[in-house]
Amino acid sequence: MKAIVTLLALVAALGGCASFKGGSTSRPEAAAVVDTLHLDTALLYAKTWNMVRIESGDRSIDVPAGEEATLVFDPQTSRIHGTCCNRYFGAFTLRGNVVTFDRVGATKMLCTGAIGDVERLYRRLLAAPLAATVDESTLVLKSDQGTITFKAGKVAK
């Protein structure tokens, strides 16, 4: 009986996280970008990036005031983490200026309204390789599916 209760508790705990599959770098447009552009990784890794806008097709959504949508790259572990409506985490690879996200998981809180729309679109865009451009104040991740724009926040820990 105790083993069954323990097993059910473990299943419930693992069920509190969702995952979505990241993309692959095998797309030809991603390979072409890798060969032509250099990315200043020191700038990419130094900051917590705060999403300000996400665009795809004819949709453009600003992150609502008072809501947080962040992205942090950890170069030591090749992992990312951040928040949108939910907290998320995963792995990344960087080749040239193309970043690919993999094994990305997230908590499963109910996300409604504009921040819910931002999160759903964000998850979809993270599934494909994204060309990155970065300067002191702005990070832009872009693919043929859409564009995600971030502003620099606090120094990453």
Determine Rg (CA atoms, Å): 17 Å
H/E order of the elements?
HEHHEEEEEEHEEE
What does the overall shape look like?
Answer: globular
- Order of strands, widest sheet: 2-4-5-6-7-8-9-10
- Average per-residue pLDDT, rounded, comes to 82
Number of H/I helices = 4
Low-confidence stretches: 1-36
How far apart lie the N and C ends?
Answer: 44 Å
- The count of β-strands is 10
Strand coverage percent: 35-45%
Described by strand count, sense and barrel closure, the largest sheet is: 8 strands, antiparallel, barrel
* Structural class by SSE content: alpha+beta
In helices, the fraction of residues equals 25-40%
Per-chain topology:
Layout: H1 2-15, E1 17-20, H2 28-36, H3 41-46, E2 47-56, E3 59-62, E4 70-74, E5 79-83, E6 87-95, E7 98-107, H4 113-126, E8 130-134, E9 138-143, E10 146-155
Antiparallel strand pairs: 1-7, 2-3, 2-4, 2-10, 4-5, 5-6, 6-7, 7-8, 8-9, 9-10
Structure, briefly:
This protein has 157 residues and is α+β, with helices and mostly antiparallel strands. It has helices at residues 2-15, 28-36, 41-46, 113-126, and strands spanning 17-20, 47-56, 59-62, 70-74, 79-83, 87-95, 98-107, 130-134, 138-143, 146-155.
Would you give an account of this structure?
The chain contains 4 helices and 10 strands. With 157 residues, it is α+β, with helices and mostly antiparallel strands. Strands 2-4-5-6-7-8-9-10 form an 8-stranded antiparallel barrel. A hairpin with a 2-residue loop joins strand 6 (87-95) and strand 7. The longest helix is centred in the N-terminal third of the chain and has 14 residues, at 2-15.
